[in-house]
Write a structure and sequence with these properties.
Largest sheet: none
Structural class: mainly alpha
Shape: elongated
Number of helices: 7
Order of helices and strands: HHHHHHH
Length: 133
């Protein structure tokens, strides 16, 4: 596959409003492992644009998160489940806001790995992740 030719074709499909065809072609091109980072990121960005147009904001927001476009990812996550919002906020460098979303869903971030669970009679026994800081 000639990634440059196919990439131009995908961008053309996107501009023509053929979003489903563009998304499929962007997916196929991005599956190629020999693309350089800049070209890959550009094509993945095109995939995100097509997904937004198709109403697949969840998928698009995770692509934007991968690309480091945090504000755009957060904007798309407004109508997503709170756990998706929390993951995006966490990766975006907003841990307190992410923690609020996790807590709203009763999902807790552990302070210590599960393997360090305290035994009976020790401070914090029975509480995963509890213990001295």
């Amino acid at each position: 596959m000639d990634a440059a030719y196919e990439g131009n074709k995908a961008w053309s499909l996107l501009k023509q409003g053929r979003f489903e065809d563009a998304a499929e072609l962007f997916r196929r091109i991005c599956a190629e492992t020999h693309l350089i980072d800049q070209e890959y990121n550009r094509l993945v960005g095109g995939l995100a644009q097509a997904l937004v147009k198709l109403g697949h904001s969840r998928q698009a927001s995770y692509i934007l998160l991968y690309l480091g476009q945090f504000a755009e990812a957060q904007a798309l996550s407004a109508d997503q489940p709170p756990l998706d919002q929390a993951r995006i906020l966490e990766q975006s460098g907003a841990p307190l806001l992410a923690a609020e979303r996790y807590l709203d869903q009763q999902r807790y971030v552990l302070e210590q790995p599960l393997g360090r669970h305290r035994g009976p009679g020790q401070p914090g026994a029975g509480v995963l992740g509890a213990g001295p800081r």
